[in-house]
Amino acid sequence: MPKSTKTASARRAPTACFDTIKHIDTIATPTYLTVAQRNDFDMARSFLEAYTGSLGTFNSYRRDVERLLQWTWQIENKILEDLKREDIEAFVSFCQKPPAAWIGIKKAPRFKIIDGTRMPNPEWRPFVATVSKSAFKKGQLPEKASYTPSNGSIKELLAIIGSFFQYLQLEEYTASNPVALIRQKNKFVQKRQGHTTVRRLSTQQWQMVIDTAEQLAEEDPVNHERTLFMISALYGMYLRISELGANDRWTPTMNDFHKDHEGLWWFTTVGKGNKERQIAVSDAMLAALKRWRKFQGLSALPTPADNAPLFPLQRGKGPLVDTTHIRKIIQTCFNRAIDNLCEQGLNEDADSMMDATVHWLRHTGISDDVQRRPREHVRDDAGHSSSAITDRYVDIELKERHKSAKRKDFRRD
Fold it and tell me: How many CA within 13 A on the CB side of residue 75?
């Protein structure tokens, strides 16, 4: 394609193609596509339909496959079978620095109801510029020019489109997998030396969070006994936010806490990659469960027949589903904890906690436990695929390294 035509295409925002899991089967093929592009679309939709069992996986695959298609059609004026190794390298470079027209400054749904019909949302963009929570609270707004993908997102991009082309090759839709032909994928990823820092709460911050959650529960049990139990589960059992809310593949219920034949308590959940795992329940976590059930007027511990939602809706019947609502619940506690830190003169701890997210509680629980439990036990409770992932949470060596550096001086005795 001539450079002038590519430039013009880059100045136009693309239109969303793929809807949510619920609507992936019903959305119509975009009418503006050519016959060959419609074939690309149909193959991509078939590929994405294989991942509807996991919301997180589906969303990630949809994001990167759609970016690939939009770039292939709009920027290169090609179809999937035309793409070679050098095209994929150009695509990755494009994703590292997309044009301004392709970048949004707020997350927008891909589709919305317009005049009674589900249509592509004109406000949606394939890429979204963001700022940290602390910067946003200080009045800083996202800027398109500052958009920079993380190393992790580029690695994930390569893995996803590699899987997509493997599928296309097996379906005999393309002759080869151009991603597999890239011999030096590391050139797209910034290399870092040594230990990767895990985003977690400090000991002081975590203590303030749990103290604040207990304070909120005492002040307003109707709204915050649930807050306290959520925070206890996120930290004490390393749960992800997706493992608290109900979804199409799993609904957390009371009898997911269960006792084995030796009287030991476990919690069963289905997590990332639709994998079921059993988590050892500590005495403190069991006490938190008893408190939560007592507040709801239930017996101290669940029976195998107790399939009531672990987190019921506060108003109405059924389980809590909306993870956005869960984030708001936890953020309310975080905000109060930050205020409490400030009141105690711990401004540095308060400032560094401004960026904390729900997922930090999982990281904090793992980081704390890996220092006192066998890492293999922590690995299995956390659902890590290998001990190498759990090893990222071991920061004892970092502490010792800094301790030895702290004594260095500029002058020799």
Answer: 23
Structure tokens at 176: 């080869």
Check residue 385 and report its DSSP letter.
Answer: S
Q: List, for residues 265-313, the tens digit of each pLDDT value.
A: 999 998 877 788 999 999 999 999 999 999 999 999 999 999 999 999 8
Is a pLDDT exceeding 50 seen at residue 193?
no
Task: Name 92's Cβ contacts closer than 8 Å, sequence gap at least 6.
Answer: 154, 157, 158, 188
* Domains parsed from the chain with CATH numbers: 3-188 (1.10.150.130), 203-398 (1.10.443.10)
Relative to beta strand 127-128, strand 111-114 is unpaired
Residue 262 is classified by DSSP as T
- The single-letter code of the amino acid at 367 is S
What strand order describes the sheet that includes 265-270? 257-259, 265-270, 276-280
CA distance 87 to 6: 14
Q: How far apart are CA 403 and CA 27, in angstroms?
A: 58
Q: Give dist(CA 131, CA 107) in Å, integer.
A: 12
* Burial bucket for residue 286 (CB in 10 Å: 0-12, 13-18, 19+): middle
DSSP conformation letters of 147-199 = ----HHHHHHHHHHHHHHHHHHHHTTSSS--TTTT-S-GGGGS----SPPPP-
CA atoms of 244 and 229, how far apart (whole Å):
11
Q: Provide the whole-model pTM.
A: 0.67
Q: Is 284:299 a contact under the CB 8 Å cutoff?
A: no
Q: State pLDDT tens for residues 68-120.
A: 999 999 999 999 999 999 999 999 999 999 999 999 999 999 999 988 889 99
